[in-house]
């Protein structure tokens, strides 16, 4: 049984999908803790599903390394097999990545390497792209440049807004994430091997 720690900054729609999937006794993973860098709306899911949560507020880039150390301390006490960044909007300091890699994965609302960074959906629209997508990657020190675990295309429709496009990407992200967690737990995806490639 994989133990998961999920880090969020927002509403936690991917987190909810994981929590709902793990209610099935056959699902080979359980969320053991939920972490956030702010008072995120998704933290209420901890109460709803009876999962412990923690918050390590980000106070500014001058204290980034110290913040990272506190965050890592909180994560490690749960002894997770996998840490998932799901809508977590902070870049992790290098020593946090080094401590968790390669068992540290991130969902991203674009077909990487297209449109990395915090505004993948907005950037795809601004570029006039006819398609974008969703990606799941192994986190490294780059910005959304780690090895791709899974990805899928999503068309950009005429009249799409940032909200409408993101709303169509989110279910794809959720599906990719659930399948990847299954595949990692069942040994069909080897994160060590992906990380080395």
From TrEMBL:
<protein>
    <recommendedName>
        <fullName>Phosphoribosylglycinamide formyltransferase</fullName>
        <ecNumber>2.1.2.2</ecNumber>
    </recommendedName>
</protein>
<comment type="function">
    <text>Catalyzes the transfer of a formyl group from 10-formyltetrahydrofolate to 5-phospho-ribosyl-glycinamide (GAR), producing 5-phospho-ribosyl-N-formylglycinamide (FGAR) and tetrahydrofolate.</text>
</comment>
<dbReference type="GO" id="GO:0005829">
    <property type="term" value="C:cytosol"/>
</dbReference>
<dbReference type="GO" id="GO:0004644">
    <property type="term" value="F:phosphoribosylglycinamide formyltransferase activity"/>
</dbReference>
<dbReference type="Pfam" id="PF00551">
    <property type="entry name" value="Formyl_trans_N"/>
</dbReference>
<feature type="binding site">
    <location>
        <begin position="12"/>
        <end position="14"/>
    </location>
    <ligand>
        <name>N(1)-(5-phospho-beta-D-ribosyl)glycinamide</name>
    </ligand>
</feature>
<dbReference type="GO" id="GO:0006189">
    <property type="term" value="P:'de novo' IMP biosynthetic process"/>
</dbReference>
<dbReference type="InterPro" id="IPR036477">
    <property type="entry name" value="Formyl_transf_N_sf"/>
</dbReference>
<keyword id="KW-0808">Transferase</keyword>
<feature type="domain" description="Formyl transferase N-terminal">
    <location>
        <begin position="3"/>
        <end position="181"/>
    </location>
</feature>
<feature type="binding site">
    <location>
        <begin position="89"/>
        <end position="92"/>
    </location>
    <ligand>
        <name>(6R)-10-formyltetrahydrofolate</name>
    </ligand>
</feature>
<feature type="active site" description="Proton donor">
    <location>
        <position position="108"/>
    </location>
</feature>
<feature type="binding site">
    <location>
        <position position="106"/>
    </location>
    <ligand>
        <name>(6R)-10-formyltetrahydrofolate</name>
    </ligand>
</feature>
<dbReference type="InterPro" id="IPR001555">
    <property type="entry name" value="GART_AS"/>
</dbReference>
<feature type="site" description="Raises pKa of active site His">
    <location>
        <position position="144"/>
    </location>
</feature>
<feature type="binding site">
    <location>
        <position position="64"/>
    </location>
    <ligand>
        <name>(6R)-10-formyltetrahydrofolate</name>
    </ligand>
</feature>
<dbReference type="InterPro" id="IPR002376">
    <property type="entry name" value="Formyl_transf_N"/>
</dbReference>
<keyword id="KW-0658">Purine biosynthesis</keyword>
<dbReference type="InterPro" id="IPR004607">
    <property type="entry name" value="GART"/>
</dbReference>
<comment type="similarity">
    <text>Belongs to the GART family.</text>
</comment>
<comment type="pathway">
    <text>Purine metabolism; IMP biosynthesis via de novo pathway; N(2)-formyl-N(1)-(5-phospho-D-ribosyl)glycinamide from N(1)-(5-phospho-D-ribosyl)glycinamide (10-formyl THF route): step 1/1.</text>
</comment>
């Amino acid at each position: 049984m994989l133990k998961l720690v999920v880090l969020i900054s927002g509403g936690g729609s991917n987190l909810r999908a994981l929590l709902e999937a793990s209610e099935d006794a056959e699902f080979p993973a359980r969320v053991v803790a939920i972490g956030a860098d702010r008072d995120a709306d998704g933290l209420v899911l901890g109460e709803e599903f009876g999962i412990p949560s923690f918050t390590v507020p980000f106070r500014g880039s001058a204290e980034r390394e110290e913040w990272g150390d506190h965050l890592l301390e909180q994560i490690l006490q749960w002894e997770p097999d996998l840490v998932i960044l799901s809508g977590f909007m902070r870049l992790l300091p290098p020593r946090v990545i080094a401590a968790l890699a390669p068992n540290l994965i991130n969902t991203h609302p674009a077909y990487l390497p297209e449109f990395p960074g915090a505004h993948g959906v907005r950037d795809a629209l601004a570029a006039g792209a006819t398609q974008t997508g969703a990606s799941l990657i192994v986190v490294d020190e780059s910005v959304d440049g780690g090895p791709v675990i899974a990805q899928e295309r999503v068309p950009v429709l005429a009249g799409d807004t940032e909200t409408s496009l993101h709303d169509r990407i989110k279910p794809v992200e959720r599906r990719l994430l659930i399948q990847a967690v299954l595949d990692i737990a069942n040994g069909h995806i080897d994160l060590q091997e992906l990380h080395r490639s």
